[in-house]
Amino acid sequence: MKNSIVIFTLLALITFSCNDDYLDEAPLDRLSPENLLINETGFDAAIVAIYQAAREEYTVAGNVFEYMTLSTDIAEWGRNDPRGNKDYDLLNSSFGAASSYWDWAYEQMIARSNLVLETIDDPNINISEEARANIKGQALFFRAYTYNFLANLYGGVPIIDGRLTLPKFDFVRDSRADVLRFAANDFNQASQLLALEVDDGRIPRAAAFHMLSEVYISLGMVTNDNSFYDKSVAAATSVINKEGGDYELITNRFGPASSNPGDVFSDIFAQGQINKSSGNNEVIWAYQYENFTLGGAASDNLGNTSPRFWGPSQDAIRSPNDIANVPADSLPRGIGVNSPTNYFKYEIWNLDPNDMRNSEFNIRRQFYYNGDDPEYFGKPIEVGRKADGILYTRRLDGTLTDIELDTLFRYYPMVRKIEGTPWAEDVASGRISKDFIKTRVAETYLLRAEAHFRNGNPGLAAEDINVIRNRANAVPITAADVTENFILDERARELTVEEPRLRTLIRMGRLVDRVRTYNSAPSLVGEKSAGNTINDFNQFWPIPQQVIDANTGAIFEQNPGYN
């Protein structure tokens, strides 16, 4: 593992290398493509470098921001400061996260994937054909994943299908449709090459089919060609019928967590039960995090940061005796960044409050005092509203105090998917060592349902949605219930925290109207909010200005509205 870490660190430096004739000899004093990519071990090290970069998706824009869910319909910026994109007027071509994601995509993911793909088909390489196919499939998968990411954030972007060995200043944007076609082709190839059974964290064939289903939906929408919906259904069916590996929707409790109070949904997200090796064959792909293990995270202090993003900042909650809570004890420390909107906290559960995904085992709505107050220590935080509509803490005798509760930052329902073993045994870090789920079969059913719906088959869509709802003991739906909004609601019920909601809304062309509908309430009276600042042109993010300025050999078009 240590050697792999050294190798993928150096790969970032050698991806863009000169190809002058006098450099054709392989350097012997350092790692390079010429002396690394010569056998299965070298290629696997290059693949490990791509996995390392992929995991950086969640930290590349700053480890306290989760821009892929913030300022959408499900989450708002909970802190009373101007950060976090709660003001869409601040989303411009100099926006730091726009540059960070762009650089991550091109300088790490695409460059490293192209490095592998440029060489892997060389017949002179000492490698078995089985290993060659699997390595190529992984590189194709990650390149496709990245172009799909870009298409669902910026729209059309340049397609780079080979390793760059000389400076280039004349990039032009390919259309979003062409980018999606390119991604679909890579995913399709990967679905024929990837292994069926893989080690934890590696990409199985089912992951390519799953992502192919999503990209085909996007192509159907952007081209108005309904045949893509048929292809999407077929790709999703390949997962559900186990043509991509032994993955299925889990319907019974499993693992060590099953001996504790909970339900099948909470078991899927239990610490130590994320991967297939632990009996979880619903999860197709998960980012791996391990405490005190080389390669277990990007750095010593960057484990799974979901608790930091999604957890309320409870340290300023005060008991009725005006004594503060401590920042963290049994729960990881949150900082109140991704504050769920009322849409997620309440509205989507009105259809069936007894939906398992809304149970106490999956959404924590009750918290306890943990400060140095013997009268209240360990007792539940009871609250109530006064005539002013503000939430206040309640005394043991039932009367309300004058201590307000900030329900955006300090006190709100918490999705329990983010609970887990503290990173490096430090509860104050806001990080955990639990692996992060990227794709699972439940979403595959929802993708197939969406494809059926868009192809004019709401009855089949309802059947697929009901597979998910039946597992959650939720009221079944009929064909008449299936709308695009309902599909988005069901995705929120099933996938919040896991799903990059921003990209889903952009993919479906629904970011602007959904943010206006569900995220318009400002955190403070008179303040701006995502919903009252978003413009129609915010349907895509801006191209980073530094990219446009550096492209001196050709005009690099900015997305409309950001000029």
What does this molecule look like?
The chain is mainly alpha-helical. It has a domain at 306-430. The protein has 18 helices and nine strands. It has a three-stranded antiparallel sheet with strand order 5-6-7, with no helix packed on it. It is globular, with a radius of gyration of 24 Å. It starts with a helix and ends in a 13-residue tail after the last helix. Mean pLDDT is 91; it is low at 1-24.
Question: How many helix segments?
Answer: 18
- Distance linking N and C termini: 47 Å
Largest sheet: 3 strands, antiparallel
Summing up helix and strand content along with how strands pair, one would put the structural category as mainly alpha
Shape: globular
Helix percent reads 25-40%
Q: Mean pLDDT, as a whole number?
A: 91
Unreliable stretches covering 5 or more consecutive residues: 1-24
Tally of extended strands? 9
Relative strand content: 5-15%
Q: Strands of the largest sheet, in order across it?
A: 5-6-7
* Topology as a string of helices (H) and strands (E): HHHEHHHHHHEHEHEEEEEEHHHHHHH
Using only CA atoms, what is the Rg?
A: 24 Å
How are the secondary structure elements laid out?
Blueprint lengths: L1 H13 L18 H4 L3 H16 L19 E3 L18 H24 L9 H23 L24 H18 L11 H19 L3 H14 L23 H5 L14 E5 L18 H5 L27 E3 L1 H4 L17 E2 L18 E3 L5 E4 L5 E5 L9 E2 L20 E5 H14 L3 H14 L12 H12 L5 H7 L3 H8 L11 H4 L11 H6 L13
Antiparallel strand pairs: 1-3, 2-9, 4-8, 5-6, 6-7
Helix pairs in contact: 1-3, 3-4, 3-5, 4-5, 5-6, 5-7, 6-7, 7-8, 7-12, 8-12, 12-13, 12-14
Organism: Pricia antarctica
Protein name: RagB/SusD family nutrient uptake outer membrane protein
Subcellular location: Cell outer membrane
